[in-house]
Design a protein that fits this description.
- The chain has 2 helices and 4 strands.
- With 84 residues, it is of the alpha+beta class.
- The chain is elongated.
- The strands form 2 sheets. A two-stranded antiparallel ribbon has the order 1-2. The protein has a two-stranded antiparallel ribbon with strand order 3-4.
- It has helices at residues 39-59, 65-81; strands spanning 12-13, 16-17, 24-26, 29-31.
- Helix 1 (39-59) runs antiparallel to helix 2 (65-81).
- It has one domain (22-81).
């Protein structure tokens, strides 16, 4: 059997066919395929970081540069540096 073949198995539990999922979250990591590609997990973390950046910019308009950098590092960048 060629390892590149597409193997489509259906699994069932107690006569109920289980749904095939595109993305699975396990131990806090999102895995999107059988090749252990974590692109979806990285995209989610980037979106969270952007969300925090928008919150900082919207709610703290009159911050000086140092205060902005401190908030950015503690809220937004921390999600990018600590992947899980």
């Amino acid at each position: 059997m060629n390892s590149k073949e597409n193997l489509n198995y259906t699994y069932s539990a107690q006569s109920t066919q289980l749904e095939k999922l595109e993305h699975v979250k396990d131990l806090g990591m999102i895995n999107s395929d059988s090749e252990l590609n974590f692109m979806q997990h990285c995209k989610e973390k980037i979106n969270i970081a952007y969300s925090y950046l928008i919150i900082i910019k919207r709610n703290f308009i009159h911050l000086d540069k140092d205060a902005f950098v401190t908030l950015y590092k503690s809220l937004a960048r921390s999600h990018l540096e600590y992947i899980n």
